[in-house]
Amino acid sequence: MTRLLIFEPACRQIENELRGLAVEPLVMDRDSRITLAGAPISSEEARPEIAWFSGDLYQQPAVPAFAGAVLASPNLKWFHTAAAGFDHPIFARIAAKGARFTTSHGQAVGMADYVLAGVLDAFQRGPERRAAQARGEWTQLTVREVLGSTWLIVGFGAIGQGVAQRAKAFGARIVGARRNQAAAPLADAIVPLEALTQQLPAADVVVLSVPLNAATRHIANEAFFAAMKPGSVLVNVGRGALVDEAALLAALERGIPAHAVLDVFETEPLPPESPFWRHPRVSLTAHCSGVTGAQDDRNRDLFLDNLGRYLAGRPLLHEIDPADLRTNNAA
C-alpha cells in the first residue's frame, strides 16, 4: 500500500474517492497529530511516499509538522502542492530528496479574472468615478478602451494564458514573455524575458505572472519602469519580489506607470506604514487574487487526477523540473 500524508480536512473531502485505491492515508490533524487507520503514529514512523500540501493547510499551525514529516520520510516519491508558485526554499529541499514535485493551477481562473477587473477599473478611471460619486459631483470622464491595446504578459503559463484569453476577447494584442519560445495560440507574439526592455515602450498593460527565481527577482526595476509607456498599467499577481518596490514608488511619482494593481508584496502582510496603502495610483489586495469559491474544487480534482496517474505509472500533470526548483532556491 502507498502511504499518503494528507491534512485531515482535505482527507474528509476525498475519502470516498480514496476507497478502493491502494493508498493508506496518513492523516494529520490541526494539532499536528498523525493517525494511520485511526491509530496514532509518530512523524518518524509515518514515512509517506506521497504528500499533498492542500490549500486548507496553508496558514495552519500544523504546517511545520507536516513539512517535517515530509522531509523526514526516506520513502517520499511525490509531493503535490496546492500552490501555483514554487519559490519557497522547502520545495527545493523536497526535490533534493529525489521526490517528484507538482503544482496546482486552480487559482489561474480567479487570477485571470482579477487581472482583467483591475485593468478595466484603471482604464475606466474607477477610482476617480467613485470619488466623484462620494462628493456628489456629476462628472463626465473620458476613459480608455481595451480594443487595440497591447498587453505584455511576463510569464505565459496557466495564469498568463488565462489573462490573454480574456484580454483578446476584448480586442487586445497579446505579447507573451517566457523562456519557451514556441508559438502560443493565445499570443500574437512570444518573446524572451531578455527582450522586455524592447517590448515595454509599446505595452499599454504589463502583467507580472512569472515564477520568482534568481533571474526574475526585481525584474521590474528602475530600468524596467523607465522603459514603460506613458499611461500604462502594471499588474503584479506573481510574487512581491518580482518588483523593486522603491523603484516602483519613484516611477509612480513620475507618472509612469499611470496605475499599479498589486496583489503581492515583498513583505506580507503589507505593513500599515507602507505608502502603497494610500497611494492614489495604486489598487491593492491582500494576496488573494486567486481565492474563489471554485478554486479548491479544481485543485482537489487535479490532485485526484494526478494520484490516479501516479498509481498507474502515467505522466503527472504540472510536474516541475528539479533544476527549476534549485534555481528558485538560489533566488
Written overview of the protein:
The protein has 331 residues and is an alpha/beta fold. It has two domains: 2-106 and 294-329, NAD(P)-binding Rossmann-like Domain (Rossmann fold), CATH 3.40.50; 108-284, Rossmann fold (3-Layer(aba) Sandwich). Helices cover 35% and strands 17% of the residues. The chain is built from twelve helices and 14 strands. The chain has helices spanning 8-18, 43-46, 63-72, 89-96, 108-123, 126-135, 158-169, 196-199, 222-227, 245-254, 295-312, 322-329; strands at residues 2-7, 23-28, 34-36, 39-41, 50-53, 78-81, 100-102, 150-154, 173-177, 189-191, 205-208, 233-236, 259-262, 282-284. The strands form two sheets. The protein has a seven-stranded mixed sheet with strand order 4-3-2-1-5-6-7, with helices on both faces. It has a seven-stranded parallel sheet with strand order 10-9-8-11-12-13-14, covered by helices on one side. Helix 4 packs across helix 12. The two termini are 38 Å apart. The mean pLDDT is 95.
